[in-house]
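Protein record

Derive tokens from sequence
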Amino acid sequence: MKSKRRCGMEGINPVPGPKAVRQSRKTDAVVLVGVGKLGKALMSYAGYSVYDLDILAGFDVDPKIIKKGAYGKPVYPIDRLNEICRRLDAKIGVITTPGSCAQPVCDALVKAGIVAVWNYSSVRLKAPPQVMVHHEDMTGSLRRLAEYAAKH
């Protein structure tokens, strides 16, 4: 006769599936500043939803982009950053602006309650210690790939 180990959880699935987890978690609001080509590409990407993330709004200085929006999402003038971030309860900001604008944008995001920044600009941003900044160095990454490819 085989003995069965019993843990007291027969018939209960202790780990919910992805659908159940997604239904029970809140989607994190993300905002993006700089709705040019890269910003639009990031705003259009649907894959963030797997991680319960969504870029809900963009900010730019170009009136044409503000009027049109991007991929069905609103784009606001930069002077509404604080208001919109607080209304959305956004904690994550993405910067895709030219380097010359990036630090003032980062400062404004922090002032608006953003605690994590994904930086695509060429500038190494300075932020308070409680704010996490991830620098996405696309040029450096491509350079490293080119160096590797040249050796092989």
Residues 140 and 146 are 10 Å apart (CA to CA).
